[in-house]
Design a protein that fits this description.
This protein has about 375 residues and is of the alpha/beta class. The protein contains eleven helices and 17 strands.
Length: about 375
């Protein structure tokens, strides 16, 4: 195999470790940061609510038509004017692209669209992260079910799985795209994509956190979920990317959904990738049980002790954001659920800081 000059340079940089990194990769301030998601054009009241929660960062999602430098700058100024910061402005239309995952017509056009999106983020200033997912037929769910107090929540039952969805599109049937795909195809398509976009992310100072498959089952609708559905899949994918700007968006809920299918549990995963600085963002979610059937729960009511997760993040000096994810529908609306979850998350952070701080003092 011939190795090009760029590949050789990248390999040398990896061999030398973190001492060599692109100058545009912004350093992260110490400490776990709390964040919440707001609408595509947050109101003053939305931002006031975030401030009242004591949260410093927000995440925003827009559609492609609004993924412009001008709109990103406008949003950044609005959020900063409220005394907050933007961690991510996601673009729904290039976040989870079937054309890319499955090598469908229009693949190169979508990749160019993604690269331009990264450039727009870079030009907007102060926004240094985005999440990407590599699911060819979307997120799959079955009918909502009931959790604590009668709250309705997303659920998945493998025996009843019929459809996935993303950005208003439904993927349905035993073969959502008319045929079965091989694992090799999915891997080749990922490599084709990431090797083109990683250099742009490096140039623009943008971190790309890759989200796990949801749910992380071996195959749905004829499409293998063979990369971002296991510890080893992530490890190999990040080796292929070979970039300091490509890492994980660790969705704790997805990891808990997978259970033993993931190969390593969520704590082991945090310790391995976290110590490498490869976890950029964490979705903080609990579920009732691992596959084949789970219900999303309140963070304190699932099968995982979420303090163990927060403590592990603290132990590896995680410096990204932790955000509530898929909160069950509470009486009082979405803000009630957000407030409840953030309060619990903050308490976990404070406990971890106190316990680890005391332990470090004893060792000193």
């Amino acid at each position: 195999m011939q190795i090009g000059r760029r590949d050789f340079g990248r390999a040398a940089a990896v061999a030398l470790g973190s001492a060599i990194s692109p100058s545009k990769l912004p350093p992260l301030e110490p400490g776990i940061k709390l964040s919440v998601q707001v609408g595509s054009d947050p109101t003053d009241e939305d931002l006031q609510f975030v401030k009242q929660l004591g949260v410093s960062y927000v995440n925003i999602w827009v559609r492609a038509k609004d993924a412009t430098v001008e709109n990103f700058v406008r949003l950044r100024r609005k959020v900063e004017g409220a005394g907050l910061k933007i961690w991510n402005i996601g673009n729904t239309d290039v976040h989870n692209m079937e054309e890319v995952t499955l090598n469908l017509p229009g693949r190169d056009r979508k990749i160019e669209e993604y690269k331009q999106y990264l450039r727009n983020l870079g030009k907007a200033g102060g926004i240094h992260y985005t999440t990407y997912a590599h699911m060819g037929n979307g997120i799959w769910s079955t009918e909502p079910e009931t959790t604590r107090g009668g709250a309705r929540a997303r659920a998945f039952d493998l025996a009843k799985a019929e459809r996935g969805h993303w950005a208003g599109k439904v993927f349905q049937g035993p073969l959502t795209h008319g045929r079965k795909y091989t694992q090799q195809e999915i891997w080749e398509n990922f490599a084709y994509f990431i090797r083109q976009v990683a250099p742009v992310a490096e140039q623009e100072g943008i971190r790309i956190g890759i989200h796990p498959d949801d749910p992380p089952v071996p195959e749905l609708g004829g499409v293998p979920r063979c990369i971002f559905s296991s510890f080893e899949g992530y490890k190999k994918a990040l080796e292929i990317a070979n970039s300091p700007n490509v890492g994980m968006c660790l969705c704790v809920g997805c990891w808990l959904e997978g259970g033993k299918l993931m190969g390593r549990d969520v704590i082991e995963t945090i310790r391995y990738f976290g110590r490498q600085g490869k976890i950029f963002k964490v979705h903080f979610r609990n579920v009732s049980a691992p596959l084949p059937h789970f219900i999303e729960t309140f963070v304190d009511d699932g099968y995982m002790d979420m303090y163990k997760v927060m403590r592990a993040l603290q132990e590896v000096d995680f410096r990204g954001v932790v955000i509530p994810d898929h909160i069950p529908a509470m009486v009082g609306g979405p803000r009630a659920g957000t407030a409840d979850t953030i309060a619990y998350m903050r308490a976990l952070i404070q406990r971890a800081e106190a316990e680890l701080g005391a332990r470090r003092q004893r060792k000193a």
